[in-house]
Design goal:
Length: 302
DNA sequence: GGTAGACCTGGACGC
DNA sequence: GCGTCCAGGTCTACC
């Protein structure tokens, strides 16, 4: 086992970052609430599948990993975890505003703002497509099915201290290459992705062939409208999904309006009367470049 | 630019 | 056990 610490820009709350949205409930993430530890399996560029155990440490994050790593693999893994938890992200400008708003003050108190990400944007786009037009239980099922059928397995047995933190599937999220080798019929009939199957397959093939360089968008300096345009060009990514992905990429000037957003805004400001997308957008427009964050972490009435 | 209808799955419900 | 209905975003065709 290899152990080390990674520093985070302060203020930082590991718990707030992990619990920022539902990703921690999706395979191959696994969350231990009593210990406040996050487990995850990832495939490094060398092809090695690694189990991670993460928790808060003074000044940042404690990271333990199995199996043993080379120096290069350790460096790669540090970068992966840094990205997943947004360790270097700076919210000070937003916090100065949020501190003045009673419904957002808890963000400052709890160091909220970071959104848990997958190691690759490919993985996050797939996850996001699997959240659309379906129930959360189905998202969990489809994600697990993809990993079970196409993910690379862990090579070795786990010691007891890792058992509870490695997802039972013991596999990493599938690579675009592995999914690209599949076919629509398999994804429909065995993985039960339904009409999403051609979207996932098309995306995997575009990334695997090099036609689409998704990972280059992670630290892109493209203006948000251009970034939005590129993400919307992906079949299966519409208005809601693109807003989620922009949040993940640290662009907060749009709001992922789904049925939950409509209900929440209705309860918060319209006495339960039905509202549309326009009302949701209007409710947070004053937060400008931060509106996505304000919406995401708003202290809703219920 | 706006809108209707189709796309799928799984759970809830009624019979 | 079977059939029907429903929730959940995005796409395409059409206006």
């Amino acid at each position: 086992m290899i152990e080390f610490h990674l520093p985070a820009r302060q203020p930082f709350s590991f718990y707030s970052a992990v619990r920022s949205h539902g990703w921690y409930q999706l395979a191959p993430f696994i969350w231990d609430e009593p210990r406040r530890e996050l487990g995850y399996l990832t495939r490094l560029s060398s092809g090695k599948v690694v189990v991670l155990r993460l928790r808060q440490a003074p000044g940042g994050v404690y990271l333990a990993a199995l199996p043993e790593l080379t120096v290069q693999e350790r460096d790669e893994l540090s970068g992966v975890v840094d990205w997943m938890l947004g360790l270097q992200m700076d919210f000070s400008a937003f916090y100065a505003l949020a501190a003045q708003e009673p419904k957002l003050r808890h963000m400052v108190e709890r160091s909220l703002g970071r959104v848990l990400r997958s190691p690759t944007l490919f993985e996050d786009v797939v996850r996001t497509i699997l959240t659309t037009n379906t129930l959360w239980a189905a998202t969990k099922r489809m994600t697990a099915a993809l990993i079970e059928q196409f993910g690379d397995p862990l090579a070795e047995e786990l010691p007891a201290e890792f058992e509870h933190l490695a997802h039972p599937l013991r596999r990493a999220f599938p690579t675009p290459q592995r999914l690209a080798e599949s076919d629509e019929q398999t994804l429909r009939s065995q993985t039960r992705l339904g009409y999403r199957a051609p979207y996932i397959l098309g995306l995997a093939r575009a990334v695997a062939s090099g036609e689409l360089d998704l990972e280059a968008l992670k630290n892109s300096h493209l203006p948000t409208p251009e970034l939005r345009k590129r993400l919307l060009a992906i079949k299966g990514v519409g208005g809601y999904a693109v807003a989620v992905l922009l949040m993940i990429l640290g662009r907060y000037d749009s709001i992922p309006v789904d049925s939950w957003a409509l209900k929440s805004v209705s309860n918060e400001w319209y006495d339960g009367q039905p509202v549309g997308k326009a009302e949701v957008k209007a409710a947070f427009a004053q937060w400008g470049e931060w509106q996505g964050l304000a919406y995401w972490f708003w202290d809703w009435k219920e």
